[in-house]
Amino acid sequence: MRRIQMQMNSSNPLVQFFTVVGGILLFTAALFVGAFVFIALLGIVVIAGSVLSVRLWWLRRQLRRRAARQHGRQANGDSRSRTSVRVIEGEVIRRDKSDRDHRDHRDQ
User: Fold this and answer.
1) What is the pLDDT of residue 71?
2) For residue 10, which of 2, 18, 72 has the smallest C-alpha distance?
3) CA-wise closest residue to 71 among 62, 60, 89, 79
4) Rounded distance, CA 103 to CA 83, Å?
5) What is the number of domains present in the chain?
6) Domain range for residue 25?
7) Computed from CA positions of residues 60, 61, 62, 65, in that sequence, does the dihedral angle turn out positive or negative?
8) Residue 47 domain-assigned (yes or no)
9) Phi first, then psi: what are they for 3, rounded to 5°?
């Protein structure tokens, strides 16, 4: 079995210069390739996350529509009814009796 041995101990300054320049170029190329791979993987993760979030939104939307249809059927007592249910949201402010008395005294 033969061993291949490479000695890089050259005293020639030109060889040393090209060795250093070659090492710097190789390191820079490795950084660029690594950055491109990282950006590509990051892009894949972003696209997969977007697809997943849109899919989950779509499923929740379908579930809400089904629940609204079921609610409409139960309210009418007809299992085949296709009525649409409209939900109106609002806010209620409840005032205690002491608040009303305070307001009445202030108005006078």
Assistant:
1) 80
2) 18
3) 79
4) 45
5) 1
6) 18-107
7) positive
8) yes
9) -110, 135
Q: Please, what is the end-to-end C-alpha distance for the chain in angstroms?
A: 111
Domain assignment present for residue 70? The answer is: yes
Q: Is residue 2 part of a domain?
A: no
For every one of its 108 residues, what pLDDT tens digit does the chain have, with 9 covering 90 and above? Answer: 676 666 667 788 899 999 999 999 999 999 999 999 999 999 999 999 999 999 999 999 999 999 888 887 666 555 455 556 677 787 878 777 776 666 655 555
Q: Is residue 13 part of a domain?
A: no
Residues 6+ apart with CB under 8 A from 87: 68
How far is Cα 32 from Cα 10, in angstroms, rounded to an integer? 30
Residue 72 tokens, joined:
């409409």
